[in-house]
Give the backbone structure.
Amino acid sequence: MARIVLEIAGLTKVFGAEPVLDAVSLRLEEGQRVGLIGPNGCGKSTLLRILAGKLEPDRMERAPGPRLRIALMDQHPRLDLRQTPWETARAGLGHWLELHRRAERLAEQLAAATSQHEQETLGQELDRIHHLLAQHGAYHLDHRVEEVLQGLGFAPEAFHRPLEQLSGGQRSRAVLAQVLLAQPDLMLLDEPTNHLDWNACQWLEQFLLGFSGTLVLASHDRYLLDRVTTHTWELYRGSLQCFSGNFSHYWRQKEQLLEVQRRTYQKQQAEVARTQEFIRRHHYGQKHAQAEDRRKKLERLQQQLVEPPREIPRPPMRFGQRRPSGQVVFRVQGIAKAFGSLELFRDLSFTVEQGQRWGVVGPNAAGKTTLLRILAGQLPPDAGTVTPGKHVELAMLDQHLQLLDPELPVLEAVRPPGRLLDEQLRRDTLGRFGITGAQAFQPVGSLSGGQRAKVALARLALTQANVLLLDEPTNHLDLWARDALERALLDYPGTVVLVSHDRYFLNRVVDHLLVFESGKVRVVPGNYDTYLLLARAGNKQDTDAAEKAPARAKSRDGKRAVPTKPKRRWKYPFRKVADLEAEIEQQEQRQQELQQELCRPEVLRDGRRVRQLKAELAQVQQRLEQLYEHWEEALQRQGG
């Protein structure tokens, strides 16, 4: 049975009139990796800070447990800005640095010791520390610091620059590096991927999978939650509900639970209404006795009333278009862009067709936003051409939401330029994006990041454009708003080109990718999982090529060994490369047809048809994975 590392009951914290945490109870077992989720502002950061001992609760009962080394990555840490990322990160190794200093002092004492007993005692303690340092790889601490900083996206030239010269995102990454290097018993991470590009997200994912301690991870990154966590805590309206499994497992469990709760609640409310109506109609009539019986039954029923379903609202977002564009939306031919000596891309060509949804992904500062601005006509390319198709009407969302005037009230800021839209239409549209009541009359500048993002999306919807260009549209949105946005984009009849580092979002929404990698831009027909599959196939081809190279190992006498060629055992029967490529093309075309079919509104309303299409899509994707492997093997056979 797993050891309990932390058990808390009655945890309460009140800010203002309402409790943020209302008698919360929780238990953490050794090695658990928990995803902490909830709407924006529900108290996730407050809970983590209390668990880390950084904030005092109003009330809490804590069961005795083992002494824990706890490390918290806070969203708003206090930093010495004179320090460098290297110094900030290395501070996480304080435990091991102290052991090194302890070993040095023991060595000095051992050299000065005169009695045999003292020498034996000091020697045993020194051996124990050396064994501990060796066991945990703590003799190469600087290498570990370098590895973590590079994994989180720091260039070597930034290692030793003061934090005051770096961006807020870089400062947050330095704090994250410190927590990861600490390797505590309990690691608490508050939105660690906020300032990471997707390469750094992949690196962090692998790091956390290798972490042997206990983890609580508050995040909106559903892909990370799926890959890393084993349990899910949902925090909502001050209470905590615990589920086993990762995010996707939680999402399914929650939907099933809500279905049961809705039916039970509605059935009970209907029974209450029928009983009240019977009592009202017959209280003074011939059926007075029956009415009295019903009144007593109602009293018993009201003592057993179930709570309304614990349902986190999901705004019913929707985008539309005034008229469709032509079949070709953008024809991009040989474009290039550079700023000074920094070349972002060159000789880039692709065609976007009506109804497609393209994702643009890659490291920070690779040129993704620049490409979006070129498509929007806001920047000219240095070379090549971008030709928009017929009847193309563009609307763009920038990631900093600069299209919203912070001084204007929301109801005015949501109005697109040159559009005369009545107030009711604007209010209704804002309501569909989760902005309701008095929020519509507040200045934009007074809203939270999530609220501003919803206003910007509502403004985009009011343009009725047939092409949407979106730069990091999920920034500031919680999980439920992201889900709503995904559904809205899947239902949207127009064309979408978006920049995002949200891998879960990319998997659900896009059917093509432009991947910025290693100085080039790669076109991938498919979503993020398709890209990973192709990347793995490419890595496998490199590995197989290395295996086929002649062995050049030295023999024991120091002379060169005779080159050897390992014998391969083929997984698949022989087929011609051209035949495999033809079948791959056929399956990819069917995959695209199924994905497009699943996006049609009339299909989405037919649950049986959706299940059939998804089952066939899963079979096609499985067949494609086999075909890619077979194709790689056929290429190797062809090469000899």
User: Anything to note?
Assistant: The CA atoms of residues 389 and 508 lie 26 Å apart. Confidence is low (pLDDT under 50) at residues 542-567. Residues 260-303 form one domain. The two ends are 54 Å apart (CA to CA).
